[in-house]
Amino acid sequence: MSKKLILKLSILVVGLVGIFLVKGYLTKNTSYPQPDMTEITKSVASFQWCSENKGTVKWQEAQLKSKYKTWTDYALRKKFCKVDLEPLSEAEMSNAQWRDLALATDSQAAMVKLEWDKALKVFRAAGLPFKSKKLSRELLDEGH
After folding, report:
1. How many other CB atoms are there within 10 angstroms of residue 119's CB atom?
2. Which of 2, 21, 120, 136 has the fewest CB neighbours in a 10 Å radius?
3. How far apart (Å, rounded) are the C-alpha atoms in residues 64 and 120?
4. What pLDDT does residue 100 have?
């Protein structure tokens, strides 16, 4: 009986070692491509950076505070929280000089900061960079 027990234990140990070797080989030799922001922004048509239903949007730039001072929170959220996206290049992301643009809060007091680079016309909400020609035109009074 001890020979059978030794044989069974040997098979279990060899199988366990084999599993660990295969697992180590597969994880070591598998490389996962990192997502490219250009490809991500090409595949997504719009982005909602703040709640459209409840909450506030407070402009951090004096010029925009003045421009939208008569707008209700509801009107600001409907106009600016959901934005159309365009492809964003790696160069635009790496060269951007971020400045605070707006601070949005939702009904549970969660805050999201919207930043922008006015010259490059790129934005970043909660750390996620994006580009929106429509939002740029509205904020910079282009084409009106």
Report:
1. 9
2. 2
3. 18
4. 93
Name the nearest CA neighbour of 102 among 53, 45, 48, 50: 50
Q: Could you give the CA distance from residue 141 to residue 144 in angstroms, rounded to a whole number?
A: 6
- Ordered alpha helix ranges (H), 1-72: 2-29, 37-43, 62-67
Q: How wide is the angle at C-alpha 128 spanned by C-alphas 139 and 72, nearest 5°?
A: 40
Residue-level pLDDT at 109? 77
Q: DSSP letter at 136?
A: H
Alpha helices per DSSP H over 30-124: 37-43, 62-67, 73-80, 90-95
**Torsion angles phi and psi, residue 75, rounded to 5:** -65, -40
The pair of structure tokens assigned to 76 is 């600001």
Q: What angle do CA 46, 122, 89 make, to 5 degrees?
A: 85
With contact defined as beta carbons under 8 Å apart, do 121 and 131 qualify?
Answer: yes
* Segment 7-30, tens digit of pLDDT: 777 777 676 666 767 677 666 655
Cα separations in angstroms, 113 against 54, 87, 110, 116: 16, 21, 10, 10
